[in-house]
Specification:
CATH topology of the largest domain in chain A: Rossmann fold
Structural class of chain A: alpha/beta
Helix content of chain A: 40-55%
Largest sheet of chain A: 6 strands, parallel
Number of domains of chain A: 3
Oligomer: homodimer
Low-confidence stretches of chain A: none
CATH architecture of the largest domain in chain A: 3-Layer(aba) Sandwich
């Protein structure tokens, strides 16, 4: 068994009030927050430790020793404002907010759970000033807050934390340029300069070059310091307050994973040939125990040196050690995509794969290592990546452009549009499509991507449901499609492997019947929603209700004859979108029904994610949106009985 | 009468082959291209002269004296590639392409006409290498072309021209950062540094600061020269070819409007208190005649000095002088919006208006001058503007965010999404909504904006049809709406002022009947499409067909009871979108019909812009998409007779 423990608020009070040298106290508080962040991430099963730890000393310093926020209260108009632009350092930030009683223990220990704290910052959580998680927006938002304070005649400074990889986003430089011209002096930016992005060093993705020189050229007041040295932090932030004519940026040299020896960036990169594995995800049980022990031992040793009692912790949970998890065994369509990329790419020498620092998550690593000369790592610069793909395509190559759907379809939308107007062929792969996993929260869940591509007249949109269909889909996009395609891929392990009919042929506008039934037809796609659909049909079957489930991977093409055939005499139709009900499969079917006199009077009910996506475990999120199998069964029964 | 004349290709040949000093020859060719660009812009009635003229000497130098493109042919794989990232300098570029017989006279003289050349570059025109017109994408696209040349083993350099105001776009800095790291040495960027953006000096919008320093800090090889001095251009571009280890940027100091004394930037700004009026639009008849005379006189004087015959020109067209045009008298909803902003803003002290360098076009200038402290000019940085608005809203202000719909809804889409997840209230105004004006081309016509906002669960989308409804809409958004709104506004003069019923009440989800009729119902919105709808009903009436026209300004809200009432017994329904048929009013109605058992079996046909928007005059574009009144009448009659 492993034990997950919490350092309670009372302990933070004790240290806060202890008669200690200020910097020694901050050191202790910082490590205590690290221990609590580690515990909540382990409990959640996911979360970002590396960059929580690299900036935690800075966040601790700001809240405990520099800002007026706790004293005035997080709702006070004259408060100092702090938020993180990178956002994945939320577990560390929550730990500080919990330690100061700004969020409750109940909320804090439920990281990435419904009703707990979100995987990325959300303003509905007390003490969180802005939503982030998508990179590059923070300085602009902080700029707005700082201007608003001036317009409202409110005092208080605005502090915003950025990552270093994040500085590859163009919006950062837009904001630096406008903020300097607008002379926003109550704005202070801190760069958590830990030199590592998702799993490689920044210099191995897109080097930032001479950062101080860049910020100075953009007209900012620049200082640099050791982000783990509290004396250094104090003197630098004190000096900032004397600069009243321009915005200020502090480049804080930090260590990713700081505080747990085997998570510390430089050491890991030396040992692992430049692959850093502590950016995201919970540590395995042994690593968790070792890391937690190292932190608490150091804290207790110091407490002893200062003549203080050792830490009292509270047991949150014990769980079986090294238990098997779904993801260890389940099918993942993204892995099938990765394999297919290499197979197809071996034959198509004109194929070029583009990445925006999500190579591992998007299943690109094998292609990256097999065909390095046809793999372009472009860093966290989605717009540049997409327009570059346009240029590659204009010169006769076939670009496969990868990122999470919420970033690619949205951040680079106008670049995708401009490419489309050139009538070249480009394949856009929107990874992490849909509601699940729901732990990271709104900034990562992609529920609008179909609608963001939908009005492009020359792009085919499709989402495969299992490994086989994923390979068929990629092969079709590369070798059959005449124009551009958008491929939606779920990133989470498939809760079950969807079985396709033996005679299944992958044909534009046509789907496959997965279960026969005459009482109603449910159209769905992708592993997540087809699994819930199958659960629903199993439940309905118990009441003698025969639900026909149709897998339709084509999200903007529909074969009218096939539709009439598959619906037949059935009166009740349902669609299930792993997307907003706006612009998805439901609306495609509505148009299909209207186009057919035989189908025009049929009744279709659309199921989809009709609000911003909930944060939580998959069952929590699915149930919240009434899209889990059980809720679907109830909704389908209700809709059909009502007639 | 005024005469519009063309300098024919034979004259360019004559000068090109004349025994002249190289730089004198280039001077002549540049001015001859200026004269032809001026003629085509005057003929089109719109187009960008200021920045065509500022970079024309550079473009002339590249094609006539530096690139291998003409020699090898524009389709050759080893050709040098040139394109413009800013794109609005297209008239000048076309003039060079025409002079070199890369495009035909027929195509060249039909600027902004169907089958002619587009208002912004389009690859379907011979010699155009990339689509642009939306700013900031060019360096990224050129980067892709340059990498492709390397991958394909093709020689040739890639030259891309950017504006200076354009450097406010973040994507530029993304591209500069990645290109330097990727060491793309066959890439050469030219900055047309004319120091003026749409109608103000760059330093009065968002200053670029020390541009050389910025480019150097980003790792580029930087040179600076006089963009109108051919000797200077020659030596700088020659030096570039010796730099083989990094990308290169030439900062070319130029004069906006160069070549026509009264259009030259510095002079205009001195006289007009920093308002430059020659960026876009055709000059009035007197200015055209004076400008054309100045250019041709100078050319002929030089020809005389060189002992050459004066120019022979070809008469293209004579037209009545100072004729009245629609825009001189017609209603413009954008003007009504501008007035309403000031009225509403006078009462709402929390209202802040944001602009991205389109103040005049978006009708903001009166507010800008009346409430300068509540007007934020953010330059061509839409993403920064939108996130800044998010920060302003989080601090209790009400931001009204303005840009053209195609830029705002698309370029800043993810920033709009993130703001929406914070549940603050922001009003986004998508100007230049829809198909008309169709002269500027795809990069400016906004036909996807409804779909780009549509999946946001907490934003109301509406488009008013006349001045009265525009004021009602803004007042509703500011004073009644609880959440964010997206207001679509047509930018062109209304072909007719739409008359609303006396008893019209502006109510969410409900529209107004404009013409009574029982044979069919047509739902539409906005001045452009309602005008075509009314034309259609007038034509149908001649055949005794009574069409009921309903104005429905609410594009994502529908009142079910009202819908049943307004449709009544009518069997045939039509929707008319000034937008893609995907995600617009048509789909809203499809959902509304499905929700009502009484309406479910009705037949709805959707009309909309179902391809990329055509470039041309309003009648040409409307007819091309079969959305003009006559085509609509035919389509409606056909659909109803077919039954």
């Amino acid at each position: 068994m492993i034990e997950i423990k919490l350092i309670p608020q009372t302990e933070f009070k004790r240290i806060h009030n202890a008669d200690l040298n200020k910097h020694n106290r901050l050191e202790l508080l910082g490590d205590m927050c690290r221990a609590n962040a580690l515990a909540t991430v382990k409990r959640a099963g996911s979360g970002h430790l590396g960059s929580s730890f690299s900036c935690l000393d800075i966040v601790t310093f700001l809240y405990y020793a520099h800002m007026n926020t706790v004293e005035l209260g997080v709702g006070h108009q004259n408060r100092d404002i702090y938020f993180s632009s990178k956002g994945h350092d939320a577990p560390g930030h929550y730990a500080v907010l919990y330690s100061l009683e700004i969020i409750s223990q109940q909320q804090f220990i439920n990281l990435r759970r419904l009703g707990g704290t979100h995987g990325h910052p959300d303003v509905h959580i007390s003490g969180i000033e802005a939503n982030s998680g998508s990179l590059g927006m923070g300085i602009s938002k902080a700029k707005g807050m700082a201007i608003a304070k001036q317009m409202n005649g409110w005092s208080g400074r605005v502090f915003v934390m950025t990552g270093d990889g994040e500085l590859q986003e163009g919006q950062i430089w837009e904001a630096l340029q406008t903020a300097a011209y607008q002379k926003i002096a109550n704005l202070q930016v801190i760069v958590d300069f830990n030199k590592i992005q998702s799993d490689k060093s920044v210099d191995n993705i897109i080097s930032l070059g001479d950062l101080e020189r860049k910020f100075k050229a953009f007209g900012w007041h620049v200082q640099r310091c050791d982000g783990h040295n509290f004396a250094d932090l104090e003197s630098n932030f004190t000096r900032f307050d004397q600069i009243t004519d321009k915005p200020k940026v502090l480049i804080a040299d930090t260590v990713k994973g700081r505080g747990v020896s085997f998570m510390e960036g430089h050491r890991v990169l030396e040992e692992k040939e430049d692959l850093y594995q502590w950016h995201a995800g919970a540590p395995d049980d042994n690593s968790f125990e070792a890391g937690y022990a190292e932190l608490t031992d150091r804290i207790n040793t110091r407490l002893g040196e200062y003549g203080l009692e050792p830490l009292t912790t509270e047991l949150l949970e014990t769980r079986e050690k090294n238990r098997k998890r779904l993801k260890d065994t389940a099918e993942k369509v993204v892995n099938a995509f990765g394999d297919a990329l290499v197979e197809v790419g071996a034959k198509r020498k004109d194929m070029v794969v583009l990445d925006a620092d999500l190579s591992a998550d998007c299943g690109l690593r094998t292609f990256e290592n097999t065909f390095p000369q046809r793999f372009i790592e472009n860093g966290i610069s989605e717009q540049d990546m997409v327009s570059m793909a346009g240029g590659l395509a204009l010169q006769g190559l076939l670009p496969i452009v990868n990122s999470f759907g919420v970033f690619l379809a949205s951040r680079a939308n106008e670049q995708i549009y401009t490419n489309a107007t050139e009538d070249t062929k480009i394949i856009y792969v929107c990874h992490y499509a849909g509601l699940i996993p729901a732990g990271p929260g709104k900034s990562h869940q992609s529920l609008r991507d179909i609608s963001l591509f939908g009005a492009l007249p020359n792009i085919t949109i499709l989402e495969p449901c299992n490994a086989i269909e994923t390979k068929l889909a990629l092969d079709w996009c590369v070798n059959t499609a005449e124009k551009s395609c958008m491929l939606r891929l779920v990133i989470s392990p498939s809760p079950r492997s969807i079985t396709l009919p033996q005679d299944y042929r992958f044909t534009p506008g046509k789907g496959a019947v997965l279960t026969e039934g005459t009482d109603a037809v449910l159209f769905a796609y992708g592993p997540v929603m087809l699994n819930e659909a199958l659960k629903a049909s199993e439940l309905l079957e118990e009441d003698g209700f025969a639900l026909k489930i149709v897998n339709l991977p084509w999200l903007n093409q529909l074969d009218g004859d096939w539709l009439e055939e598959v619906i037949g005499d059935c009166e009740f139709l349902f669609s299930l979108d792993n997307h907003s009900p706006y612009g998805g499969l439901g609306d495609l079917l509505l148009n299909g029904l209207m186009a057919s006199p035989a189908l025009r009077q049929k009744q279709l009910e659309k199921f989809g994610v009709d609000d911003f996506p909930a944060c939580g475990t998959p069952p929590e999120a699915l149930q919240y949106h009434k899209l889990d199998g059980k809720s679907l069964a109830v909704r389908i029964a209700g809709a059909t009985n009502r007639q």
